[in-house]
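Moderator note: this is an archived Q&A kept for reference. The question asked for a predicted structure of one protein chain; the sequence and the answer are reproduced below.
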Amino acid sequence: MKGHALTGALLFGALFQCIIAGPGTTTSSIRSIFLFKDVMKSNTVSLKTSGFNTLIIFNIGILGNGDIMYYSNTAGSKDVLVASMGKYIGGPALASKVCSFKTGNTSVNRVEISMNSQHTAWSLDAVNNDDESIYDVGSSAAFARMLGEIGYKYTIAPYSNADFWVSLKTQLNTAKGGGNPLLDRVYLQCYDGGAGNDPRSWQSSLGMKVVPLVWVTNDSKPGQGATVAQATSMFVGWRKEGGVAGGGYWNDYDIEKMRLSYTAYGGVLMDVFP
């Protein structure tokens, strides 16, 4: 990654005002869902009106030259180069779609992207780190601090290697103090490779509350999927046992592919984490 190109893209974002807003804040519990489906194809109305207050857009990648790519992972869609040479080039339709999540009739007050960086042309609040292989504290901390300097929060989505995440969190938040931490949310994967994770253990190690994630019913790994009833049972249990910060799901693509109900899954979070 060429740092100057990435920095240019990020700084351009600070100047490119779409619906510029500070980091999303809420006093309610966190009710999140990861958006694996191309946002131009997903059911925007349902995402905005089913009780979710946090959307995390997946599949953002940084290319070797510092350009930023949005990978669609959806039939009938194409990958989109969204930033190059310090300029947003993703087009007004994509920017408008992402900005729309927090406007109009919506319960969404925070939008993040998962993997690396993005721009305020999308009216983002935070960048999520879903590192599952590299685990380099130094480069991760440096990147997070750069994001913090231009106004973004930093979140993580671990499933293993707790020591790495504890070290990263300590480096990022120690200097910030307790009132305004840079790393302010942990979305803990409690499915597939993280199926055995205990939120209480992670909360104890990290010294902060976590948001456990479950995988909705799916045909990719059916045994890892949770029905609405199963999700309810898990979230209620975690809330009673560990006082978690909220709950969330992986992912919107499966909800639509399997013809599931956003309202039903979102309703679970509204009931358990009002």
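Archived answer notes: Residues 1-25, 116-120 have pLDDT under 50 and may be disordered.
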